[in-house]
Amino acid sequence: MTTTAPAPFSLRSIAVPAFGPALLFSIGEGAILPVVALSARDLGASVAVAALIVTLIGLGSWFFNLPASLITLKFGERWAIVGAAAASALALVAAAVSPLVPAGLWLLAAAMLVVGMAASVFSLARQKYLTEAVPVVLRARALSTLGGVNRIGIFIGPFIAVAVMQFSGITGAYWVGVVAMAAAAVLSLTIPDLVAKPAPGDVVPPQQPTMRSVAASHAGVFLSVGVGVLLLSALRASRQVVIPLWAEHLGMDATQASLIYGLSGAIDMLVFYPAGKLMDRKGRQWVAVPSTLIMGTAMLLIPVSTGFVGLLLAALLIGFGNGISSGLNMTLGADFSPDNGRGQFLGIWRFMADAGATSGPVLLSGITAVASLGAGVAATGVLGFAAAAVFAVTIPRLRHRRNY
Q: C-alpha angle with apex 364: 31 to 389, nearest 5 degrees?
């Protein structure tokens, strides 16, 4: 009797159920992000309150990372993804009707908080799913593609929203988000279930570790590679603020600033897959160190740029560096996560990454307030060199090829 060898795994086999919901979810996010502050202002919020409501999305995601891991463990990856997309769709319905209710500003704020919390669950569950569903030798390509798909969705979402808003006003952006999130929930139902590896009959299944025990047992990872991830996230978040601020500093109008930002984002989207392939074949350091050095160098070049061309070149360099680092945080989290306690580990990992994303713009703001914008930008550039140093020392070469 002959047995047929199993077919080699292909990313194409799970492309639609794995990456389709991520694309739709990010389109929904991209559609609403440019209009949240405007909606808050229309509802009577001050500029400061409007900015706070936008920030609630990030804060909701940051603080819900740890509960998100527990939700994913309880309901499984597929149902966590479905539930998160559905919850986000309902929250955007609330945001769309907020102008029609007396406490509309409060409803909008609550909706944005729920969107952030849902995004946390959605992101963690899909990362955990791909970590376990994809063979290790394809892991970086899978997670880099996931990061690239997110970027594509965030990039095209606003354009779809603009087309709809021509006919329905600002609330049209939220209805685009509702449709995209609902479609993500429906498509997520097609995600294949993970097949658990059969355990020998005499082996007792290990007890599920607690969040505290995972944090304690992997403290060395969190305090080494995790610090690099925190620095990288701070650098990434800062770049989104730096480009428009320096464009304004140079006296450019909104059209020029948007063009520079858009071209940087376009470069960002073009290089994610080759970078993932390089990480799988050569090792994570081949992308982690160059990407952070490139972004750090580009940030240092911004304060010396004096016109459109100089800022554009620096922004393109930032886009390239950020693009090749697509999925890096997720890949490193997957590499170091244990089989038993992976959900808890990834929850802590994502909490650290989001802490960096929140602190980066705060650092920029603080240094700008006490010194100058140029000094603040240069300081964020130093974060790139610090991250590169951490990654160079702490990421074991070709660790992802070992059986761990």
A: 100
CA distances from 126 to 84, 134, 330 (A): 11, 12, 10
Q: Which of 318, 303, 312, 322 is nearest to 258 (CA)?
A: 312
Helix, strand, or coil (residue 193): coil
Task: Answer yes or no: do 158 and 256 share one domain.
Answer: no
Q: Tell me: do 171 and 33 sit in the same domain.
A: yes
Give the C-alpha distances (Å, rounded to integers) separating 163 from 25, 35, 99, 157, 261. 18, 14, 21, 10, 20
Burial call 316-355: b when 16+ CB within 10 Å, e when fewer: bbbbbbbbbbbbbbbbbbbbbbeeebbbbbbbbbbbbbbb
Neighbours of 288 (CB within 10 A): 28
Residues of the chain with pLDDT under 50: 1-5, 199, 202, 398-404
CATH classification at residue 250: 1.20.1250.20
Domain that residue 381 falls in? 211-397
Q: What is the DSSP string of 30-89?
A: HHHTTTHHHHHHHTT--HHHHHHHHHHHHHHHHHTHHHHHHHHHHH-HHHHHHHHHHHHH
Distance of CA 395 to the CA centre of its chain: 21
Count of domains in the chain? 2
- Claim to verify: residue 133 and residue 247 sit in the same structural domain: no
For the entire predicted model, the pTM comes to 0.87
Residue with tokens 């992101």: 123
DSSP category for residue 253? -
Q: What is the pLDDT of residue 204?
A: 53
- Provide the pLDDT for residue 94: 96
Give yes or no: residues 336 and 217 share one domain: yes
- Do 274 and 321 fall within a single domain? yes
Residue ending a domain, choose from 153, 188, 223: 188
| pLDDT score of 195 | 57
In one-letter notation, the amino acid at residue 98 is S
